[in-house]
Amino acid sequence: MTFSLDDQPCDCGQQLIYRGMMLSCRPNAALAFGYTNASLTLKVDLTFGRICRLLDHLARSGHDYCVPIPPAQTRTWPRQASL
């Protein structure tokens, strides 16, 4: 799958994943992933509960979208070793 925003491509592999559910390059985009066992079901349930609370907050506050913004000191992976 290829993501783009305003016809600009988004390299998801280089983006911050906020709380394991939102990419820093996509507004209102959430995801859940894991293994196919009971722990996946529990994690997905918690993730979607958090997403529902976020959407409720957006509706109550009159906002249309949410985009996680990484702090300035966040480095992208892979980290390069300094010599």
Report on this model:
- By secondary structure, this protein is α+β, with helices and mostly antiparallel strands.
- It has one domain.
- The protein is 29% helix and 12% strand.
- The strands form 2 sheets. Strands 1-2 form a two-stranded antiparallel sheet. Strands 3-4 form a two-stranded antiparallel ribbon.
- A hairpin with a 3-residue loop joins strand 3 (17-18) and strand 4 (22-23).
- The longest helix is centred in the middle third of the chain and has 24 residues, at 38-61.
- The model has no long low-confidence stretch (mean pLDDT 77).
Rounded average pLDDT: 77
**Tally of contiguous helical segments:** 1
Helix and strand run: EEEEH
The rounded Rg comes to 15 Å
Number of DSSP-assigned strands: 4
| N→C terminal distance | 37 Å
Helix content: 25-40%
Q: Uncertain runs with pLDDT below 50, 5 residues or more? A: none
Strand order of the largest sheet: 1-2
Globular, elongated, flat, extended or rod-shaped: what is the shape?
globular
Estimated structural class: alpha+beta
Instruction: Report strand %.
Output: 5-15%
Number of domains: 1
